[in-house]
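Readers outside the structure-tokenisation community will struggle with the description of the input data as it stands. I therefore recommend that a typical entry be quoted early in the introduction. An entry of this sort, consisting of the sequence and the corresponding backbone structure tokens, reads as follows:
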Amino acid sequence: MCRLDEIWDDAFGQHDAFHMVDGYKNTECLVYKGFKIESGYKDNIYVYKPKGEVYEEISQEEYDTLCEYGWRKGVLKLVLKSYQIKLDTITEKVKIEVNTRRNDKHLKSLKSSRQQIMDSYLKIVTQISKL
């Protein structure tokens, strides 16, 4: 099993992550694709994922993904998982819309959202294949 300081070192070695230092709380963090790894007080390291406008600590399964693939590829895998959840949600909404209201404007909006997510999904898959 890997340690969080190994993930931190891997993340710190990435050049395309956004680096921030908070002198007030004495913490340092890196943000990549919305995921934030934070090294805080007494060298505690936490990893957070975006949840609306705030961050939420990732689950043990997601920590295991980061340990297995490393920071960069692990984050990309987690982003793919979140896209898949969004696609499943949109698919369910399309089914409901087709079977009940049949509002063409809403249906087109759902299909447009699905296409945007699928385009983003393809970009992430391409990035993973290059690693």
Q: What stands out?
A: Helices lie at 4-12, 60-69, 71-99, 104-130.
